[in-house]
Amino acid sequence: MSERPPRVLVTKIGLDGHDRGSRIVCAALRDAGMEVIYTGPWQEIPDVVKIAAEEDVDVIGVSSLASDHLLMPKLMEALREADLGHVAVVLGGTIPESDEKWLREARVERIFHPGTPLPEIVKSIGQLALEVRARDTLA
Amino acid sequence: MSESARHKGPAGSGAPQFAEAKEEFDEAKEEFAAAKEKWRREFDKRVDGDAAVRNQSRIEVKPIYTPEDWNGGYMNDLGFPGQMPMTRGIYPSMHRGKAWTQRQLVGLGTPEDTNLRQKELLRAGATGVSIGPGNVHFRGYDIDEVEPELLGTCGAAMCTVEDTDLYLKDIPIDQVSIGANDPSPFTIAAQVLTVAKQRGIPWHKLTGTSNQSDYISHFVANHMFYRLSLKGARRVLVDHIWFMNENVPNWNPLSIVGMHMQQAGATPAQAMAFALSSAILHAGDCMERGMAPDTFLPRFTFFFDVSISLFEEIAKFRAGRRLWARIVTERFGSEDPRSRRFKFHAQTSGSELTRTQPLNNITRVTVQAIAGILGGLQSLHTDSYDEALSVPTQEAARIAVNTQNILREEAHLMDVIDPLGGSYYVESMTKSMEEEIEAIIAQIDDAGGMFAAVEAGMVQAMIGESALAHQKRIDAGEDRVIGVNVYQLEDEVIDQKPLERPDPQKIQAQLARFAVYKEKRDRDAVSRALDDLAAAANDPSRNVFAEIVAASENAVTHGEIVACLRRELGFGKPLVVI
Predict the structure, then answer these.
(1) pLDDT of residue A135
(2) What pLDDT was estimated at residue B500?
(3) A98 — contact with chain B (CB < 8 Å)?
(4) Does A101 touch chain B if contact means CB atoms closer than 8 Å?
(5) ipTM (interface pTM)
(6) Residue B10 confidence (pLDDT)
(7) I need a labelling partner for B533 at 20 to 30 A (CA). Which of B291, B342, B348, B554 fits?
(8) Any idea which architecture A7-138 has in CATH?
């Protein structure tokens, strides 16, 4: 990845505004040399898709504390429809264990639960960005 | 000073008694110094390379505290509860006279669902009710304006006077105090007033608090509650305080929040400073509008997070109490002793709860609650142990209530007022916290006060830096969190109880009922009320909140009121600083 650092969109969809987690993750990704776009909370799904396309991101990180992850299938579908199916989507926050199966089936690639160390998140997102770039080259 | 020296009256110059006393005094000093030196040597032998220990507020904590750290200026530093300097408590009797209010925040599904849960909590020992609508409401919308998946998942799906009435069904609101989670423009308070009128209860019999009324904390930290522009929120808050003071005298219209800042990462000292600076702002605004300080200050309340850092939290609350008493007299010239009472509600820190080995959280909540109780709180919410997993289950909520019951009924925590007062450590740390808090308040004063400081993003940046530093200390293993960075279980299977999600049929029925509600209203009355509201918003000489109450009485919904004010006073967008 010598050409440019990974580009990551960090966002919160739905109605919750608790953003301590998303802001800390943004700062850690930035400090690790990645290019980070942070939307702040309450994003509409079409807006997230639009920003992801315009900013040509490799990874989208969605943060959820209070049930907003229930909207993930809608986001994933909107990304596919916009031809952004190659972008890796990860989720972090208070995600009940029992929802993990269907989130994986909706092709959410990683779920970071509370307590995950920042270096682990940074590494994981860096790897995903590499994989996304490799997919793009092969395609 | 020896007994003999004290009783023989003032020593004249050259009096032999004085020389004797001085000798004894010097001897005692030498004895102290020698003992201390001996201890230090022995301590250093046992503790290898004693690195500086710091609390969450980054204040250094010594291995021992002695009269060198606090010299026992009793009346100056402590005094008696209910008297200046207020260190020991705001009431003469504190918990010896009356237990704290046990108020749990609940809300899920429909208003009927939460009404049942609420009544169960009252039977289980809760002594106040809370009104906890979900994020849909917090964001200022009616239930038909959002994705239905989100309804009732983290609060009750409600938005009309009818909903509030159902929420409070069979609950004697003239006897039980109400904590309404009700940010500006205070539609729930308006609906409660309407319900009281319908039930024939005079407004002066209502007791309660407009929780989440402090827009500053929402602008900088918990953005979820942030609805109107900064200037708009500022205007509506002062109108709300004015209206409630005049018409609902036993209601606390303002709860100043340090909680959200600490949950967002601020240190305990920062959170206390931000809350006090916010209080200075709000009090100044009320005075500018022509209210005399002692008409509104007795109704100011505070809301804090309480972390597991036990002694630091106790020191934080003692310091906050002392500072507030001084601020109201020195800055506002208040003369009414009631204005000096630093009344606060505390909630145990949810951000310290872990997803791994979740039952450990019961212990964390217990320690946090003890810190708040020994710190002299007036009401308490204890978190459920499963909050890092999901919206709390019923069993976990019951354990949270019983944690309070055990602390109140079994642990003898209420026998003695301010039981840690006089401890060299606690007094010294109270002073250190006080100095740290004052320094941050001075920084905010220099930036032009809290309003200017948050407009410029200064407070947000401070919170962000503390949050990141805290996470880095955890990642580095410097701050230890059981089950997260130490004592992890290999292959831990998170044993999560089946999640209670709202019944989709009930949510559909609630949406249908809302449609009927809107259909059967007097449409002319609704549009007249909204016109009045818009006109009042644009006329600084009118009270906007009076029109919100009038709108509720005319069946205007929560979402309609917020939308109208967002049009007239500006949509609230927080300033996000990374």
Answers:
(1) 79
(2) 67
(3) yes
(4) no
(5) 0.75
(6) 52
(7) B291
(8) 3-Layer(aba) Sandwich (3.40)
